[in-house]
Structure formats: C-alpha cells, structure tokens
Amino acid sequence: MANTDLVLTWFHTLVEATANVAFALSGLLAGVRKRLDVVGLCVVTGLAAFGGGTLRDVLLDRRPFFWVAQPTWLWILIGLAIAAILFLRAGHFEFTEKAIQWPDALGLGLFTASGTQLALAQDLPAIVAVLMGVVSATAGGVMRDVVCNEIPTALRDHRPYAVCAFLGGWAYVLAVHSALPPGLAFIVAAVVATGLRAWALVTGYQLPAGRSAAPGD
C-alpha cells in the first residue's frame, strides 16, 4: 500500500509539473503578444501556471500551496520570462493566438485530472470532484486573459473549453470506479479533456451561442 501511495504521489507531481509548464507557456505567449515587459510576463506566466491550482487548493483547504511547497517553480517561470524577452528581441518568432491554444489544451487536460484526483482523495462527492477539476483546469487561463485585457477564452471561445474539462473529470471518476490503476485513470482523464479540446480546435466545432434580441423586440 505504501509503495502504491508513493507511486501515486510521484505521478501526481509529474502531472502537476507538466501542467504548470504547459500553462506557463500559454501565459508567456499571451504576454508576449501584448508586448508586456519582463515583470508583466512573470505576472501573467505565474497566473496562468499557478492560478487554477491555487484556487483549487484554497477550496480544498490544502496547505501549503503547491508552488509554496516547491518554490523552484518560481525561478523556472522567471527564467522563462527572461528567455521570452531575449527571443522576442531576436525578431524571428511570431506569437499568435493559435500558438497559445495548444499548450493551453495540454494544461487543460492535465489539471483536470489532477484537480479531480485530489478532490476524490478527500472523499468528496463525484460531482464536486469533477467541478474541482474544472476549476483547476480553467481558472488560470481566465486570470491570464483578464490581466491581458481579453475576454477569457473559457467564455468567448464558442469551441468547447470548460466542457472538455467537465467530461475529462467524469472520465477520471468512471476510470476509478472501474478499478483502473490511478496512473491510468490520470491518463484517461487527460487524454479525454485534451483530446476533445484539440478536436474542437482542429475541426472548428462550436457550441450553440445565445442570440441577442433584435432592436424593438
């Protein structure tokens, strides 16, 4: 049992690390597009990488926050911001919105799995655990977009976003109830959430949008 817990802890750390890097890249690219200075890049990168996980930890009453327990991540983000400034000055790179969407999709899937797993580990109901996965996966991107003076992607992009995280969270719950190993359940949830988002990006599929009332109606 101890070995199983150790493997799960190690795997969870790996997932969180990969998700942090993915969302950090999305924040970095967003900041570069807005021509922020190195301080602005650090702020946006940190919000994108740590925002969702921090809000999740607050709601689950987990202390210390994951980035406080592993402060090395702060130095990594500062290094990424400085590197981005140097690459930008070289003038050989074009940072488009499409470039932001792919690391964002990867982070979406990984944080969905991570948030859902942590909530289930506290014996919370399945629906609450899934919502914790959605919060983990989307809050960082929302903070990133707000600071960059954009309507959050989760709200303005009619292609599925939070819906992908929601379905990925349920995939994790079903995998666990099917007695799949925790590591495999992580992979299933991440693949479902990231895969659905990638499919929406490639095909351009959009959710139905509400219609505004015509003048005089």
Structural features, described:
It is a single chain. The chain is mainly α. The chain has one domain (2-203). The chain is built from 9 helices and no strands. The protein has helices at residues 2-33, 38-60, 66-69, 72-90, 97-121, 126-147, 153-156, 162-177, 182-203. α2 (38-60) runs parallel beside α5. The longest helix is centred in the N-terminal third of the chain and has 32 residues, at 2-33. The N and C termini lie far apart (65 Å).
Give the tags.
mainly alpha; 217 residues; 0% strand; Gly_transporter; single chain; membrane
Can I get a quick summary?
It contains 9 helices and no strands. It has 217 residues and is mainly alpha-helical.
